Structure formats: structure tokens, C-alpha cells
Amino acid sequence: MRLADILKGEAVELSAQDQEIRYFLAYARVSTDDQERAGLSIPAQLREMQQHAQAKGIVLVGSYQEAESAFSDESRRPEFWRMVERAKSDPQITGILVHDHSRFYRDPYAGPQVKGELLAHGVRVYSATEPEYDPHTIAGLAIEKMTEFKNASYSIDVAFHTRKGMRENVARRDSEIGYCYKNGGAPLWGFAAYKVQRGTDRRGAPIMKTLWRKDETSVAGRQVWEWTRHVLVELRLKQKVSLDQVRDFLNDHGVPSPRKHYWATSSWRALLEPPALLQYAGYGVWNVHAKRGRHRPASEWKIVENAHPAIITLEQAEAIMAANDRQSRLGRDKSKGRMATVRTQGSRHLLTGGLLVCTRCGANLVGYRNQNRLYYVCGAKVYRKGLGCGPALQIRKEEMEAAVVEEIGLLFTSWTDTKRLMGMVNEQARALGQQQASESVEIARELVKVEEELGNIRQAIKGGLDDVEWANSELARLKARREQLLARQATVGEEPEVPRFDLTQVEECRRRFAEVFAQGTNEEKRAFARLFVQKIEVDPGTGEVLMHLFSRPPVPVSRGGHKKTPASAETGVRIGMVAGAGFEPATSGL
Ligand SMILES: [Zn+2]
């Protein structure tokens, strides 16, 4: 190629588009309950994408696929996010191919954001079945936004009709069995779901309907629904036992909870709430739950009587409601004193909130008080009487924390550069000083204003003001304000002295890390510990403690909502803490 050819416009263009191989990722997804589009199975989507890629000279270097409910939160798609991360980090990849744009993202707000981020990394989203466009042109942008609008409105429409269908479904009574249909979802404890076929649809596929019956599975010598009634009527209503006692009763009798193996108090709180009690009394209740586990107002619930066999009567359910009220009032009164102590003591433990983990059962260790001493102990011991774990090990709080502080101190010393630390300390001191200085400027300014106002009033009196009462009260108010300001000025000091720290002092502080650390507030200490400690594993069997520390300081990531991530993490530093003075087997008092 010659420059002259270029200037004359006669250069033979080696069409970049034809020569360059493009590397894309493929993404396919199906909605598990989107029947309108049921024909588009994942293999069918992938096939069409393959054909498209071949025709366009695209190499698909990876394919990601997902099946999800049209009603679940769209952002919860692990494969999707894996793909997005790969597309952003692999410079070879310039595109993501989807069967049609609605496969990529339906949400009209979150979708464009992801697309924009990809675009910033040089990655575009292409559809195998829709016209191609360049989002950097006006026409292309219009097509993109129209497509987003079309997809969003389609999914709003589907959601609307599906909900309408569900609302009708729960009110429909089966002509043979006489009870009403259910919309899916796990049945309440004590009930079992079963399906019946009721005709076929247009394509000849059987139409299945879900109903509930009493759960007659035999567990520990009784049918499940009988356990349910026993707890509701005998324990809660007649014996008025607490939720903790209900939990222990079922765990002790080997009656498993529906999802996990053991019962927790919180499950029983939910089973005694109005929607559950109505269902126990035979009412179908739908449309209770809103997003994020909230309840909709009761006026929006769809309630159908005699929708399934009842386990208790409505009168019993009503009486249980009254018992709940009494119990919670009682609980509130009893816990008033206790709550105050829990609140002040709860924060005394530095290593709660998932830092300490039991290796035997995986539960977090929690703060625990036994005979006026503070310990850490496996959460299973405290919340479930040890169920799912085993004999507990009490670890004395001070011993554990002292060991952690020592390790943090060592790590801190190895991380810090004294000179930089000195710079940071002095910067902090200067900022504090400035804050003080600006406060004293503020006070001075206000004092001048007060003096001015005092002057104005005196002037007004001289000028013949007749409302003497007002003038007097105003003078008194301003004088009081002046006293206040003068007092504050005295404490702030007009010229705050900003201390400066030299290398020796900073070095000294660094060496006496434990003492400095001890002066922090509990909140500061907890935050500090989290910068250094990744996880501490405790084996209650052997008393062995394995501390996982970050080998480098975490890099603060300020992007919204992200946790601080460590630059790197060591796999674990075994610290010599086995069965020392701080370790005691659990006493019977536990
Ligand atoms: Zn445990």
C-alpha cells in the first residue's frame, strides 16, 4: 500500500470486518413458568445462535445458560453474572449473543445499566433473531430503547395475566374433591400438596391442579398433622407455652421441621401469624407476601373458606391469636430489663457477626454469659440446646480477644510504614484542629450578630419604642445567648493547638499497639478487627483455633454496596491456642 493511493482514495481496503474474527459469549435462558414462550427451549436457542454465529463469522468461546422463574428477582442469575464478569475482564471478547434481547434482561432499569457497563468495556449485546443496530447512532439507540420498552411491557403484561389467573385459581373448587386449587409454593407445615389431572390443554398436555390435604406422614409415632394440632391446641392454646418451648418440644420428640432438620423459634413465630392460622382453620389465603418478605395489608389478601381440610377450628385459631397477644405483652414486660443489659453487653464481644465459626457444625460462635463471665460459644448451644453440634466448648472472651489483638498487632506492625503512618496521624490531627478552629470562627461570628441585635434594640428604645415588655424579654434572651456563646468559646479556645507527632512517637504507638487498641470504642475495635481477621475456626472437640488473617490490608472498594475485599487472603495462620486457660468444657449451667 502506498501513501499516494490513500491520498487518492484508491487504497485497496482489506475489509477489516471480513478479516477479523469476532469472539462472543452466548447466553440462553428460559423462564420456567412462561408458557407463552415455552417453545424456546435452551437447546433451540443455542442452535439458532450457533447458526447466526456461523453466518456472521463469530466464534462463540463460551455459552452460559439459565432457567429461572419469571417471578423471581432477575438480578439473581449466577450464570448471567459470571458471563458478564468474563466479558468485562477478557479483552478478546467483544460481544454477547442472545437469542433475542428479552433473554438478556427484561427489567427496563437494571438491564440498560448492565449493557452500558459492558459497552464501556467494549462489549456489545447482539441478538440472533432481531435486526442488528449500532447503539452509538440515533437510529440504533431508538431501536434499542424501543426493544427494551417492548420487552418490559410484555413482562408486565404476562405478570398481570398470571396473577389474575392465580387469583381465579385459588377460588376455583374442584368438582370431585370439593376443595380449592393452590398456586404452588410449599404447603404449610401439617399439610401436604398433591396433584390431580383435570383434562388436557389445546396441545393435548395434561392440565394438573394442586390441592392440599392433611399431611398424614407418620413421624415419631404420630401423623404430621396431628403434631401440628397438638402444638397449636394443646401446647399453645391450653398450656400457653412459649415459642422456645414449642421449638424444644418438637426437637426433643424428633419431629423435623419442614425445611431444615431442627426447629427454630422464628419458624414458629410465622406459623402463629394470621395467614397461617387462617390456613390451619381451612381457609385458603393468597397474596399475603409482598417483596422482601413483607406482608401486604390484610385487605389485599385473597381468602377462600373451606379451601382445604381444616386442622383446627376458626374459634381455636381466634383463641390462639388472643394467646399470642397475651404472650407478647408478657414477653415485652419481662424483657424490658433484660433488653437493656443485652444491648450494652452485646457489643462487648468483638468477634461476633460471623468472624468465629464452629468447625463441627458450621454455626457462628456467639457471645455468651455464664456466671458473670463472658464467653464465646457455638450458636447451636445457645439457640438449639446444642442440636446439630455436640458438647459445647466455652471460650473465655478475654483470652480469645487478647490472642486476636496480639495477632492483629503483629500484622499491623508488618503492614505499616511508619513514615506514612506518621503522615496519616498528623493529617487526622490537622483535620480535627481545623474542625475546632472553624467552630471558634462560627462562635465569633454569632457573637457579633448578637451584639448587633442588642444594639438595634437599644437604638429602638432610644428612638421611643413603646413595647417595653417585648424589648426587655428580647434583651434578656440575647444576653443569655451571649453568655452561652462566651462559655462555648472558652472551652473551644480561640487558637486550637494542633499537635504534631514525630517518627519516634508514632513508632512508640505502633509498638504499644495493644494499649492503643484498648483505648478505642467497641465499635472502633470491631471495625479494626474486621480489617485484619477473615475468619476464625474453632473446633469444639479439640479446642483448636485456626485464625485466617488477611495477608495484606483490604482495599476499600467504594462502589455502592460492595464489601471491602482483601487484596489477597492467606489460607490460614494456625495460632497456638489449644485448651489453654481460656478454654473450659461447657458446664451444666449452660
Ligand atoms: Zn457447633
Name a few traits of the molecule.
590 residues; Rossmann fold; Hect, E3 ligase catalytic domain fold; 4 domains; 4-stranded parallel beta sheet; 4-stranded mixed beta sheet; 47% helix; disordered C terminus; binds zinc ion
Principal-axes shape call: extended
Our count of helices gives 19
List how many beta strands DSSP finds. Answer: 20
- CATH topology name of the largest domain: Hect, E3 ligase catalytic domain fold
Number of domains: 4
Strand order, largest beta sheet: 2-1-3-4
* Range of helix content: 40-55%
**Using only CA atoms, what is the Rg?**
35 Å
In the CATH scheme, the class of the largest domain would be Alpha Beta
Residue windows where pLDDT falls under 50 for at least 5 positions: 338-346, 555-571, 578-590
Bound molecules: zinc ion
Give the integer mean of the pLDDT values.
82
CA distance, first residue to last residue: 87 Å
Strand pairing plus helix content: what structural class?
Answer: alpha+beta
Give the DSSP E fraction (strand runs of 2 or more residues). 15-25%
CATH architecture of the largest domain: Alpha-Beta Complex
Q: The biggest beta sheet, please?
A: 4 strands, parallel
The named CATH superfamily of the largest domain: Putative Large Serine Recombinase, Chain B, Domain 2
